[in-house]
Amino acid sequence: MILVTGGAGYIGSHTVLALKEAGYKTVVFDSLERGHRDLNFGDVFVEGDLRDYDQIESVFRAHPIEGVVHFAASSLVGQSMAEPEGYYLNNLTGTLNLLRAMRTVEVSRIVFSSSASVYGEPETIPITEEAKKDQTSVYGETKYWIERMLDSYCRSYGFGAIALRYFNAAGCDPACRTGEDHTPETHLIPLVLDVALGRRESISVFGDDYPTDDGTCVRDYIHVTDLAEAHVLSLKKLFDEGQSFRASYNLGNGKGYSVSQVIEVVREVTGHPIPTEIGPRRAGDPAVLVASSALAERELGWSQAHADLKEIVETAWAWHKKRFS
Ligand code: NAD
Fold first, then answer.
1. Is 273 exposed, middle or buried (0-12, 13-18, 19+ CB in 10 A)?
2. 101 and 234: one domain?
3. Ligand 1 neighbourhood includes 113 CB (under 6 angstroms)
4. 68, 181, 187, 304: which has the fewest Cβ within 10 Å?
5. Which residues contact 138 (CB under 8 A, 6 or more apart)?
6. Is 0.95 surpassed by the pTM of this model?
């Protein structure tokens, strides 16, 4: 069985479906602080909190777990700057508890949800795994330090670990079984879809004077189903590689889209005019963030099946209507 922490959340629930389709049985462990009971597709569901060591150890003792996919984290950049302690506690202590429990029961394969935020402001585009890592948020720091913990556990205890550095996860399960339902929502596509659905009056665009073609920030949107597939491939690689394997891979679309381009595609898909308000730039927002995923393609055999922005928005829109109207 595969333990999926945070498996009732957005990317976690998609990955549980992908693992099922690949023939794995899953135990979902989620506090439901941000996740949803109805988005659990695990064979077993345990409501629990990684900050409590005994809870997570008892899950390993109760089920024949062979590997772990670790999504559970606090992940709001702004909140991490306002309330850093909670981020250190949940992301660092929570992960340390997970790794300790794994070591205690001798489970040593883990795929970890890292983030583009480990890089901070890029010096060159596209961003490769070797790029400078100079985080600009506490959230990004916690992801970076967890990667360092994984280095140590692989080096000293023979773990096998893959960190997947996601860029902007977007879109939803093409079969509409699960999708994005964050409270608060901070991601661009669901926020714009909220306007189309009448849940929000307009969309704020933070800055239109960046050095990009239309002046708005350019980001890399990767379909969540393609992300989910990368976790299945990573687990397989860890089972194949044996002890002490350690790698980090970027996962992105490789193609950047500006905020204005995303809004335009939402207009096209929904038929809604989507009023916008141009505001000032947000501190710490780089002009362009685009990934190179060449290493994941080469070493994991990963490729995208849903890279087209229109398809990403169409799948997100189908889910948004189903969930929120
Ligand atoms: P999410 O909030 O939908 O999912 C996280 C899940 O973890 C939630 O269901 C939450 O209840 C659970 N959780 C949090 N703390 C927990 C704890 N202490 N114990 C047990 N469960 C806990 O978030 P998501 O968008 O699916 O992101 C998943 C992971 O991917 C996170 O680690 C996030 O930092 C990372 N990530 C996400 C994106 C993105 O674009 N969404 C980009 C880069 C990295």
1. exposed
2. yes
3. yes
4. 187
5. 80, 81, 84, 87, 88
6. yes
Residue located nearest, by CA, to atom 3 of ligand 1: 9
Q: Which residues are CB-neighbours of 82 under 8 A, at least 6 positions away?
A: none
Regarding whether 275 and 233 lie in a shared domain, the answer is: no
Whether residue 106 is found in the same domain as residue 202: no
> Where in the sequence is the domain holding 272, given as residue range(s)?
188-220+254-324
Tens-digit pLDDT profile for residues 64-123? 999 999 999 999 999 999 999 999 999 999 999 999 999 999 999 999 999 999 999 999
CA distance 203 to 263: 9
For ligand 1, whether the C-beta of 11 sits within 6 Å is yes
Average pLDDT for 186-215? 96
Query: Has 139 been annotated as catalytic?
Result: yes
Using only the alpha carbons of the chain, give its radius of gyration. 19
Residues 6+ apart with CB under 8 A from 146: 91, 92, 95, 112, 114, 163
Q: Within a domain: residue 180?
A: no
Ligand 1 centroid, distance to 71 Cα (angstroms) = 5
For residue 264, what is the domain's CATH number? 3.90.25.10
Q: Is the CB of 223 under 6 A from ligand 1?
A: no
Q: Is 115 in the pocket of ligand 1 (CB under 6 A)?
A: yes
Does ipTM surpass 0.85 in this model? yes
- Asked if 194 and 138 sit in the same domain, the reply is no
Active-site entry in 87, 139, 144, 166: 139
**CATH code of the domain in which 129 resides:** 3.40.50.720
Encoded tokens for 65: 């777990």
Any ligand 1 atom below 6 A from CB of 51: yes
Q: Is residue 172 part of a domain?
A: no
| Ligand 1, pocket-test mutation among 33, 57, 224, most atoms within 8 A of CB | 33
Number of CB atoms found within 10 A of residue 38's CB: 11
